[in-house]
Amino acid sequence: MAILIPSLEAAKIAKQKPTEGEVFLLEFLETTTTLDDDVEVYFQPCFNGDRPDIVLMSPNLGVIIIEVKDWNLSLYGIDTNNKWSVRAIYQRVKSPFQQVYAYKKNFFEIHVNGLLEKSLKSPTFFKAI
């Protein structure tokens, strides 16, 4: 079983409470037996201003960044160039995929010393996150 940081109970009473979808995923990650005991699950960690919803870290497998969206997809549009927008006001928004990619890029370029250099030396190293 994974280690939740903070605990689910602490996350539920935090200043920025988890959404229904985030609670569902955290409960699943906390109780699943498919994750090793050394996997750490962080809820809304802060990385120098970046605040992904959930980050899984494993010393053996790498890092997974997850953005949970409880969106009503009928309120959003996606054009042929994969640009997302709120239909009613035609305001552009980042897709969850764009958000996660930006977090990943920042891990390599800003947050963790040495990751960028390792990814330049090995084309497969970028897959660690």
Provide structural commentary.
- This protein has 129 residues and is of the alpha+beta class.
- The protein has one domain.
- It contains four helices and seven strands.
- The chain has a four-stranded mixed sheet, sandwiched between helices. The chain has a three-stranded antiparallel sheet with strand order 5-6-7, with no helix packed on it.
- A hairpin with a 5-residue loop joins strand 5 and strand 6.
- The model has no long low-confidence stretch (mean pLDDT 90).
Please give a handful of descriptors for the protein shown.
129 residues; alpha+beta; three-stranded antiparallel sheet; 4 helices; 7 strands; globular
Briefly say what this structure is.
The protein has 129 residues and is an alpha+beta fold.
The global form is: globular
pLDDT averaged over residues: 90
Q: How would you classify the helix and strand content by structural class? A: alpha+beta
Rg is 16 Å
Estimated share of beta-strand residues: 15-25%
Measured as a percent range, the helix fraction is: 25-40%
Tally of individual helices: 4
Number of structural units classed as domains:
1
The helix/strand series, from N terminus to C terminus, equals EHHEEEEEEHH
In the predicted model, the low-confidence regions spanning at least 5 consecutive residues are none
Between the first and last Cα atoms, what is the distance in angstroms? 21 Å
Q: What is the number of strand segments?
A: 7
Strand order across the biggest sheet? 1-2-3-4
Main sheet record:
4 strands, mixed
